[in-house]
Amino acid sequence: MFKSSRSVSLFRWNFLWHPFWHRLKRHHLAALLVLALLAINPAARGLAISWPAFKGESASVDPQGQSNPSQDRNVVQVKKNPFLEGEVNAPDFPGGLEWLNTDRRLSLRELRGKVVLLDFWTYCCINCMHIIPDLKKLEAKYANQLVVIGVHSAKFSTEKGTDNIRQAILRYEIEHPVINDKDFDVWQSYAARAWPTLVLINPKGKVIGSHSGEGIFEMFDQVIGQTVDYFRAQGALNEEPIRFRLEKESAPPSLLNFPGKVLADEKSGRLFISDSNHNRIIVTTLDGTVQEVIGDGEVGTRDGSFAEAEFNHPQGVALDGDILYICDTENHLIRRADLKTRTVETLVGTGQQARRFNESGIGTSVALNSPWDALVHEGQLYVAMAGPHQLWVVDPKTREARPYAGSGRENHTDGPLNQAALAQPSGVTTDGKSIFFADSEVSSIRAASLPPGNVVSTIVGQGLFDFGDIDGVGDSVRLQHPLGVTYTAGKLYVADTYNHKIKELQIRQRESRTFAGTRERGVRDGDRRQARFNEPGGISSTSKELFVADTNNHLIRRIDLATGAVSTVELKGLEKLNQHVARKFRGRQVEVARQTVAPGPGSLALSFKLPEGYKYNQGAPFYFGWKSSDEKALRLTAKESARSLSEPKFPLEIPFEGKAGESNLTVEAIIYFCNDQQEKVCLVDRLKINVPIEVKAGAKSTVAIEVVAGKK
Fold first, then answer.
1. Percent of all residues in the chain with a pLDDT value above 90, rounded to a whole number
2. What is the pLDDT of residues 83-97, one digit of tens each?
3. CA–CA distance from 613 to each of 254, 567, 610, 674, 676 (Å)?
4. What kind and span of H or E run contains 643?
5. Is the CATH number 2.60.40 carried by domain 584-708?
């Protein structure tokens, strides 16, 4: 995959070898040199782009956007810009492709009048992940002018599945349409050659240019801005809002949201769960009883108490006594949580992604790049730094952070620590002599010597495009994008993520075999050989059990090493989660049609329609809170304004007294419901229900409301 951080990053025509591009003229290439300067010379990026003065035709445009050369008054004279006009028609999307994040197939013809940005990506790729925030910024800035379309052209075989891409869209919180380009049809029509590649198309359906790699915002912001101004002046820009039906709108809520990692500490009897998409860490006992929630749940970098601290999709954690180190991945920070004082502080990182390689530093002056997992050994914190394809080491006392293993070049090369090439290391563990790491993009499990050693070696795995699901010995073994690894009793256990399996590795023999899972994604407990997982991203161990972050199932799973039984960790003591949510309610909004009630005593009768096959999870801590926007019109008469119930009965009656006028009755609710199948799935729904009520003579005294549960 293309890694823009290590090469000259140009906004350019990078397809010149392809016959599609042979019609380009010199003035296009001359204009592109301006953009090349922006990429090569960072100081130039602060300058406005000025296009060369090309000779071209003039057009007269009236305020309604209709060309009318015969009129000279109240028109805008627009000088043709050959670069922004383009000459090459953008190929439209082939029929038969599956679309996600939209309720209909799209065509470039339909999108005429919009600036269109194609993002060729694959969901394993760290560089593709890194440009998502930039795409979001562009989408927000040009909300009515720009349409981004993701073209998912998969590297790994598992990534070809439409539902797997859907899960990635939800996990990365992508809010633009995505095409499943599993056969590389769109990729080839645009002659893409790297992940990520972006292609910009003007409102007339002509290609302007392309870019491969990261660091895209400034470059595309300037080009899109000028494109918008230019075509607006022509009256050729469609600025009507366009909305797509997103996958998140039909995704069921869950207690955990894409948990990326889990750490089991046998000594203290605790689990530390990275509830990644809820931006928090949950601390439980080994049987799942919630003890602490670390993090406010909002995306941010705030330090402070457990209730105040903010994270951005945290991944791995490491425990050292009463200190928990947290890989705050999308903030590019390492955070330190003190479990005694219940406070969080930033240990190292600037909060911005590092753009340079091999730059050491101290504390908040050193930039990091997607820290993904960590471990503590002899007082030092070793970090799997996925972004620069390295292992780093941090001294918690001095706060010095520096590269430990890996040159920064993405590949599969063994050798001395500083010369070896790694590829997106995403999980780490140790036997006290070596750091074993899941090198995900080369589908390998590798080892880096701890001091005084100085070598990186490979246990199983080969190269960037050598992957599969093959048990065996040595070089014949194949994994598929493993993200987690743990050491116990002389063996390694691997979260073989894209094979939906747990593998067992004999280190010296370099032997790998399937320990749990069937390669069929799903959720099934029972015998390990029939159990099912869905892209497990993390794994940890005690002397008796494995704990698995079953990421796409939103669950933590347990595997008994003696019996081979797989079970789901049932979270208990959920009132702590409720307290966390109630402090700053983030439930989905439900708007109910206006209701009328008679003056005098009355009530709201609230019930829920559960998904088919589900029933309420009796014993879970249901929460309800209510308030009236105008007590003079509608006075609530219950003794309390909130209630926690372990065995609620529906419909839930909320009493009030109707006076006169109008009020808005708001009910905040957290409800739990599970299915009855062997593959038990429990869901949670957090809702804020708004019921406008008018007090009117002759109306009924009771308002009955039924809300559909399990929607977003």
1. 77
2. 999 989 999 999 999
3. 16, 21, 8, 8, 7
4. strand 642-645
5. yes
